[in-house]
Amino acid sequence: GVQYGQLGTDVTLPCPGVRASSPVQWRRAGATALPEGSAIQQGSLVLPRASLAFMGTYSCHSEDGGLLHTVSLRLGHLPGVPFVSCRASDYENFSCSWTSSVETFLPTRYITTYRKKSLTGEEKWRNKNGHVGLCLQDPSRPGTCTVHRSEFWSSYRLNITEVNPLGFSYRLLDVTMQAIIKPDPPEGLVVEPIPLAPRRLHVSWKYPSSWPKEPHFQLRFRLQYRPVIHRSWSVVETVNLSEVITDAFAGLEHVVQVSAKDFLDAGNWSEWSAEARATPVRDLVSTASEETTTDARLESLAEEPSQAPNPEPINRSDPLEKMAVLVSLGIFAFFILAAVLVITILIWLRVRKHGKDKTKPNFLVAASHLKALPSESGCR
Length: 380
What we know:
The chain is α+β, with helices and mostly antiparallel strands. The protein starts with a strand and ends with a helix. It has helices spanning 177-180, 284-303, 319-372, 376-379, and strands at 2-6, 11-13, 25-28, 39-41, 44-47, 56-61, 67-76, 83-87, 93-99, 109-116, 133-134, 136-137, 144-148, 155-164, 167-176, 187-193, 201-206, 219-227, 234-238, 242-245, 254-262, 276-278. Among the domains are: 2-76, Immunoglobulin-like (Sandwich); 83-180, Immunoglobulins (Immunoglobulin-like); 187-278, Immunoglobulin-like. It is elongated. The protein is built from four helices and 22 strands.
């Protein structure tokens, strides 16, 4: 048979059917001697402070060498309190997973049950002595169990008990659906460039297949994207199943992912979906400009001699110096124009004055002739 013992403690292997006073011999298969410090007491073999090196097959024999009993010794630890976490990928079921807190080195099994808490929120549990539901374990997914047809407004107490040949240990965990809801990632992510739109990408996706199809269970979504050569993400939130990215970089490949969360903000965001990639179309104007520039450079390189020196002197003048010269010439031209304008005005005033002086004497001569004429009364 098999006997289990706890590491670090004294382990006693009995030899059934042997009187305490009868002499017996103990042997270990595959070894010439028993572990150091072992002793035979009243027909039983005592192994002090057992370690993993003590494991093996032991046999007790009569004084004449006849086989009396064989036992296989396995050593390990008592179970520890398991680590447990629960998650609901929809509003109809939730699953719990666990890991052992201690490596026991022994065969281990788990008992997984639950009780539903009363809807009134009282501290005591309804029907304490009543039905206990099973959190069903899936052999294809070790370390997980599922509660089917759970109620959204109810709370549950999970009992995950770890059992091995040396004993058992358990953890109680209270969960509510609102707190543990976490959808699966959205599916069917597609990213496509938009024709004639250099900075735009059209992104679409579908609800996760595990999410209920009822219209009152809605999701909202979070979209993250970046050029492949960049490290920082841009994030956009939406309630739609598609989105148009308007600030993509033309001609650069972009990576896009999407996650989901309950529309009313219950629970947590899902994990990010698988990546999808696309490249926005290049701007036709900039592309043509780049091609023209490239062609011009190639033509200039073809026309230039490969190693011949340039006979024209190199212009090393400072641009600021050129600007100063232009400003000086402008100021000089302004003063020239102003001087010409002043001279023109003076000449015009002088000519006008001279014309007035010539007109005035003729007027005075005419007036003197009028005075010299005899009046009408004198002639009579």
